[in-house]
Amino acid sequence: MTTTILKASVALAALAALSGSALAQTTLTIESWRNDDLATWQDKIIPAFEAQHPDIKVTFAPTAPTEYNSALAAKLDAGSAGDLVACRPFDASLGLFQKKQLADLTSLPGMENFTPAARTAWSTDDGSQTFCVPMAAVLHGFMYNKTAFEELGVQPPKTEAEFFALLDKIKENGTYVPLAMGTKDQWEAATMGYQNIGPNYWKGEEGRKALIAGTQKLTDPDWVKPFETLAKWGPYMGDGFQAQTYPDSQNLFTLGRAAIYPAGSWEIATFEAQADFEIGAFLPPVQNAGDTCYVSDHPDIALGLNAASKNAEAAKTFLSWVASPEFATIYANAAPGFFPLIDKPVTLENALAKEIVGWRGTCQSSIRSTYQILSRGTPNLENETWTASANVINGTETPAQAAEKLQKGLDSWYKPAAAK
């Protein structure tokens, strides 16, 4: 009897060892555009997962943000993409799901931790299928050098008039570039420019949904006015801003040479690690004192499963962990400014992140106007808005011309009735 039990134990141990050996060879690769987060994943997120799942190894392999969509599409088409795919919100990822390149994760254990609203950016239009695990949203506003503001004796502005008066004072002083932003890469002109200040003009979700419904157009005043405001930014952006890249702008601010940075909350960790001054933040200024304020509170990133992955089970194990409160807490504090979408309490430690997420209690939240439905055709409204925003700031296109071109492009393929 004892011999039989011993033999059985040895056999089970051998089987477990064999199983463990096979699983130990499972390596998952994550595709992402968040190259700024490489250290965060390598030093904090992945070690936390691997400590619980030593049989699964994870590699974070990011691509430059501006190249990600095209590079990912090429890899998926060629069958060379990683097992896990960072999902941009709405149309870009929905298109991949419709091409059957992202797996259906509706029934994934852990998905119950997200409300239908939190899943919206990565679900089909009718909400019946979800194809990525929501990770985080980001908020837009302005970051500023507190030391510079103290030296100049100025305060964060609340209205548009105060904003430009502040820029004038900083420019007149000459010590700092008033606004750290360039237009060479284009996307930040739209993301941290037009989409940052725009919701205060088109009244957030009210205007965005009206644009989808076709009851408003990009040539309407509420959509042209943000371009008119952007057109005034150029003189405050420093010499040669037209050739200034996104990393150039980041460096200009963190090196203490610029006073204000039109920002997304995702910059917090990078900026606090590099700057030797305290960073503050203020909301996009409203047009007039007392106006309702709106803030771009955008579902930004999720994680999906490459439908062609040969490691689907291990990948689902990882994705279920990403859907957990444990991951949400690690991610929110390892990458401050990425605010979890999970329907569970998460304690934030970073003071600047807590300040910015507090804007949700002050202002009405909205998402970027071009992301849902309106960028499914050609020309792509999101990419066209990049160019238009840069051109308006550069002075090569008037606000009215930019708006007219965008609406003409949208009209060429989008019929509002099709969205109903």
Automatic annotation (TrEMBL):
Secretion signal, residue range per the UniProt entry: 1-24
Superkingdom to which the source organism belongs: Bacteria
Chief location of this protein within or outside the cell: periplasm
Cellular location(s): Periplasm
SUPFAM superfamilies the record matches: Periplasmic binding protein-like II
Keyword flag Transmembrane: no
GO cellular component: periplasmic space
InterPro entries assigned: Bact_solute-bd_prot1, SBP, SBP_1_CS
One GO term of the biological process aspect: transmembrane transport
Keyword Signal: yes
Keywords: Periplasm, Signal, Sugar transport, Transport
Pfam families: SBP_bac_8
Family: Belongs to the bacterial solute-binding protein 1 family.
PANTHER family the UniProt entry points to: ARABINOSE-BINDING PROTEIN-RELATED, BINDING PROTEIN COMPONENT OF ABC SUGAR TRANSPORTER-RELATED
Function: Part of a binding-protein-dependent transport system for a sugar.
Protein name: Probable sugar-binding periplasmic protein
Organism whose genome encodes this protein: Aureimonas phyllosphaerae
